[in-house]
Amino acid sequence: MKQEKKTLSYYRLRLEVYLKDYHPQLLSDETFIRERSEAAAKTYEEAFLQDNPIGIAESM
């Protein structure tokens, strides 16, 4: 049996916790989770690279 290696993502984990608490029906939607967590990571990276303070970048 081949095991798929999963990359840990802060934004993915945060989204999964939120979904578990408030929208458990969406936990099985892998595409939704992947797209939203990647978008959040990209937004944070762009804000950080524009010299925004970490607190501001996290809130975007």
From TrEMBL:
SUPFAM superfamilies cross-referenced by the UniProt entry: PG0816-like
Superkingdom per UniProt: Bacteria
Segments crossing the lipid bilayer: none
InterPro entries assigned: DUF1896 (IPR015082), PG0816-like_sf (IPR036297)
Protein known as: DUF1896 family protein
Organism of provenance: Tannerella forsythia (Bacteroides forsythus)
Taxonomic lineage of the native organism: Bacteria, Pseudomonadati, Bacteroidota, Bacteroidia, Bacteroidales
